[in-house]
Amino acid sequence: MALLENEMIRLRALEPEDLELLYRWENNSDLWELGNTMSPYSRYILKEYIRESHRDIFDTRQLRLMIELRSTGAAIGTVDLYDFEPHHRRAGIGILVDPLYQGNGFATEAMHVLMEYAFMFLKLHQLFVHIPIENEASKALFTRCGFVLSGIMKDWVLTEKRYSDVLVMQKVRTER
């Protein structure tokens, strides 16, 4: 099996054809609380983002890949490595699966493929994630993928109604 894929999914670079999907996902205000989005993205900005996405993770300190079903070629979400720190060999990780495809194990499959890439190819030592404490689905996903709770940041994010705590979870590579 090739790097960045398994029997079910493939992680691939962004393509110009992904513009409308990214536009829909990035501008879904229901998801803004889960990240740090404060306002909508224009098609122009997303087009430029896609155009620049060929740049190396060592240059931009981030990498976004599309999650694609191998069976149909449908793009169903994205995975991100962000806050990439090559000296300390760590990165944050994020994932979005379109609601139409949730509940089918695709997020777990994508995480396993991304972790293999991060640990074996990029030689990272650890991955981390910040999860709003109310996000049960993300807590379950990252726990399934071997992440462990390493801390709680109190009142870390402002939601619509109040401040909320954020869990910090990490997966440290077991040396082979």
TrEMBL record:
Task: List each copy of the N-acetyltransferase domain by range.
Answer: 9-174
Q: Which InterPro entries match?
A: Acyl_CoA_acyltransferase, GNAT_dom
| GO MF entry, a single one | diamine N-acetyltransferase activity
Q: Which Pfam families match?
A: Acetyltransf_3
Keyword vocabulary terms for this entry: Acyltransferase, Transferase
Which top-level enzyme class is recorded in the Swiss-Prot or TrEMBL entry? transferase
Q: What EC designation does it have?
A: 2.3.1.57
Xref: PANTHER family: GNAT-FAMILY ACETYLTRANSFERASE, SPERMIDINE N(1)-ACETYLTRANSFERASE
What is the protein name given in its UniProt record? Diamine N-acetyltransferase
